[in-house]
Amino acid sequence: MAANPETSQYHEVTPERLIHYTDHAPIGASNGTAIFIHGSGPGASGWSNFKHNVSAFQEAGYRCIIFDQWGYGKTSKPQDVDHTLDFFVDGLVSLMDSADVTNAVLVGNSLGGAVALGLALRHPERVEKLILMAPGGIESREDYFSMPGIQAMVKYPMGSPEFTKEVLAQLLTQLVYDPVNVDDELVDERWATLETQNAHVLATMQIPDLSDQLASIDINTLVFWGTEDRFCPASGTWKILQMKGNVQAELVNYCGHWVMSEYPELFNERCLSFLSK
């Protein structure tokens, strides 16, 4: 898979805090903007999460904004603030304002799904549609930490001597059903990012359980979940189905936490069909 073809851009939220993003123009007539929001795994970045999906959305007429959340990728990694849901959502809103995006389709995986839900609750007028893949923020902290993937992820703190490249490679296999989806290129890409990260983002991450607020969200939504997800229980599908809008769900067997990477053709085709109606 080729490197990100677009030039890096930086949005200055404050002089000390910059959000890194790339802006991918639509091909043909514009159908709006899609913003892709990545998850919280070690070495995560926007391009790493969504490199299999961006071109399909561009060809369908979507301007695609891929950004790195606080503490990840090439975005600033502040150590003087807790990484709350509001902190993540505020960053996204600031980026949308700077990019002249009034509203957008939000495509969020895991932590990114929680941030998308957070924006939908605070500013529903800025969300055209939601596409969620195993979103976080809909279970208790205890339930998440009982999942085998989460237990593996927190076993070795980022930045500790024990968190080697081999540990990273093993951890990445927890995110997918078939380890063939984790190749040397992915491990190298994630390791390069991981070496720039610090442990503060995960140590201070505070994502509340939004379950009791989901019924107030009235936005058309497509949710994906892999039945073999080791990080977020697939039972969360039924919680998302409680939302008011037209909510469609895709349960994918033989699939882990990364449906957009494990089954990119299925994911892209299903998303674009959903968005076209």
Commentary on this structure:
With 277 residues, the protein is an alpha/beta fold. The protein is 35% helix and 18% strand. The protein has twelve helices and eight strands. Strands 1-2-4-3-5-6-7-8 form an eight-stranded mixed sheet, sandwiched between helices. Strand 1 (9-14) and strand 2 form a beta hairpin. Helix 3 (85-98) packs across helix 4 and helix 7 crosses helix 8 (184-194). The chain is globular, with a radius of gyration of 17 Å. The mean pLDDT is 96.
Extract low-pLDDT stretches: none
Order of helices and strands: EEEHHEHEHEHHHHHEHEHH
Q: What is the CA-atom radius of gyration, in angstroms?
A: 17 Å
Number of strands: 8
Quaternary assembly: single chain
Strand % is 15-25%
Helix fraction by DSSP (H/I, runs of at least 4) = 25-40%
**How can the largest sheet be summarized?**
8 strands, mixed
Distance between the termini: 30 Å
Please render the helix and strand layout as text.
Blueprint (H helix, E strand, L loop, with lengths): L8 E6 L2 E8 L7 E6 L8 H5 L3 H6 L2 E6 L17 H14 L5 E6 L1 H12 L4 E7 L7 H5 L2 H8 L9 H10 L9 H11 L5 H4 L17 E6 L9 H5 L6 E6 L6 H4 L1 H12 L2
Helix pairs in contact: 3-4, 7-8
Give structural attributes.
277 residues, alpha/beta, eight-stranded mixed β-sheet, 8 strands, 35% helix
Quickly describe the structure.
The chain is 35% helix and 18% strand.
